[in-house]
Amino acid sequence: MDFLLSNTTSASISHHKLLTRSKLQNIFFFNFVIDYCQICTLSDSIQGTRHRFDQFGGLTLKAMPEEKALTVTNGSSNNKTAHVLTMAGSDSGAGAGIQADLKTCAARGVYCSTVITAVTAQNTIGVQDVSVLPEESVAAQLKAVLSDMHVDVVKTGMLPSTAMVKILHDSLKQFPVQALVVDPVMVSTSGHVLAGSSILETFRQDLLPMADIVTPNLKEASVLLGGLQLETVTDMRLAAKSLHDMGPRNVLVKGGDLPSSSDAVDIFFNGKDFYELRSSRIQTRNTHGTGCTMASCIAAELAKGSSMLSAVKLAKRYVETALEYSKSINIGNGPQGPFDHIFKLKRRNPSRLQLFDPSDLFLYAVTDSGMNKKWGRPITDAVKAAIEGGATIVQLREKDAETGDFLEAAKACLEICRAHNIPLLINDRIDIAMACDADGVHVGQSDMPVKTVRALLGPEKIIGVSCKTPEHALKAWADGADYIGSGGVFPTNTKANNRTIGLDGLEAVCLASKLPVVAIGGINLSNARSVMELGVVNLEGVAVVSALFDRDCVVAETKKLNALLTDTVAKVGSEMVCNK
Ligand SMILES: Cc1ncc(COP(=O)(O)OP(=O)(O)O)c(N)n1
Ligand SMILES: Cc1nc(C(=O)O)sc1CCOP(=O)(O)O
Ligand SMILES: [Mg+2]
């Protein structure tokens, strides 16, 4: 996926805001036509008052640091649990609404509390019923969460009455949060109207000015702009600018339905610069809930401390990756199915208990008996040194060792690894692994088949398998492996006659894989960065032999590689990045 930065800068808008607004209001008045269906019986009353907000009137939202780096992987930067509150409708089919928000936040490692505004009966065919909750109940839910549980970001979805917008305003005034993400849900993806016409004006006048970001799709942007035709990327830019004039700090116009584009193009506008965010359009029926997911992912990333632009970029990648992973899901008989938010769980074979942590593959030290002999180093010293340098997993690859010697060495190394909580795997020799109760084994395509190894070792041991092709990768998952070693990425002298697959081959394996992948083959300090910079989904780290063990000081070499990998991964950003 490319992010194209446009240098187009809008003129300062602040003093034009009210003028622009009144012009737009006229357009809305004459052009607004919306298809009423039974769902339009939603309550619209606001009990007499129309509330106005800051900057037009009094609400304080804590400012977001604009270019704060996305450095937090687990919870917010101040050690508090990152927390998103979603105020939205329940979707019985669980593809959108509250259910999508909960799953998205869970997938992104963020706590999510819920304020339910309406209960919808819907499935893959469409929306069959909507029950709007009493306003007192919505107010009570908001108060219960905001008054007690520290909320970082509020995200709104279906707000079926103007009164609920006022309740939101009053609640946020009493309990300010870091940011408000507004997904202006008005029309469901199946075409049902989820907010009546009278709420439209409240959205424009009251909700949008409160928002740190508003994320309309083309239909919603068009409705908000009085039925404006949006058919090109240029139209989307104009729409983003006009919506920004209504008061939100940032606007993301999502162009998933843009007829004139073969890509999925979104326009992000922060009041100054336009960003054109492009990704390939994924052909799938399983797109129900993409809007809610995008907005809740933005909210989750903001809650973790990300800048607005980074949060938007990451959310787009997250949705794209989830869609890609969910093509084969077959739920329901209607035209639009849900997708899988927690796609990473597919790495795991659900039929058995999984104890393996993919992040252990970050710096994988693989020993070599010949190299240890050359440097006069006992294997136990080699393993200790690698661990001291920062190795996160160790494999004993002792091709020349006698069985008895290998078993004794394995037992000694296991003691060292256990003391440091580092998994120890045995290369090729299932018998040695079983005899010393190692944490697992690594096998190649011509070693014992993974299914047989699994049957021998049971559900809890780690099994790695070497894969050079996407077909190998799919089989590895089906057979019950835990991870894939993929290479040779570069030519190597350590393994004779090894076929080099290059960075392209590695990328193809990672993209096809449902398992975490570690890259291997000729990787050293001069090229490890290029491997991790692929930033491809499933790639967790590098496995190395000679760059650590065919060296004078194993500790120093491991430390250097560890620092380089850490630095590269921090720059690449999220480990779920899918490089399209
Ligand atoms: C992490 C990791 N990946 C790949 C290999 C290679 O295993 P294999 O193909 O069985 O070749 P040998 O190591 O047995 O020569 C590995 N050992 N570790
Ligand atoms: C053991 C092994 N397996 C490979 C594969 O391609 O599967 S390449 C390899 C050797 C890796 O050693 P070095 O880090 O010294 O290049
Ligand atoms: Mg082997």
Explained architecture:
The protein is α/β, with parallel strands linked by helices and 580 residues long. The chain is 38% helix and 17% strand. It is built from 19 helices and 18 strands. It has helices at residues 17-31, 97-107, 135-148, 162-174, 197-210, 218-224, 233-245, 290-304, 308-325, 369-374, 379-389, 403-419, 430-436, 450-457, 470-479, 502-512, 528-532, 546-549, 554-572; strands at 2-9, 83-91, 111-122, 127-132, 153-156, 179-182, 213-214, 250-255, 263-269, 273-280, 363-366, 393-396, 424-427, 440-443, 462-466, 483-486, 517-520, 539-544. A ten-stranded mixed β-sheet has the order 1-10-9-8-7-6-5-2-3-4, sandwiched between helices. Strands 11-12-13-14-15-16-17-18 form an eight-stranded parallel β-barrel, surrounded by seven helices. Helix 4 links the parallel strand 5 (153-156) and strand 6. Helix 3 packs parallel to helix 4, helix 11 (379-389) packs parallel to helix 12 (403-419) and helix 11 packs parallel to helix 19. Mean pLDDT is 83; it is low at 1-77, 346-354 and 574-580. Residues 366, 466, 485, 487-488, 492, 494-495, 498, 520-523, 544-547 line the site of the ligand Cc1nc(C(=O)O)sc1CCOP(=O)(O)O. Magnesium ion binds at residues 427-428, 443-444, 447.
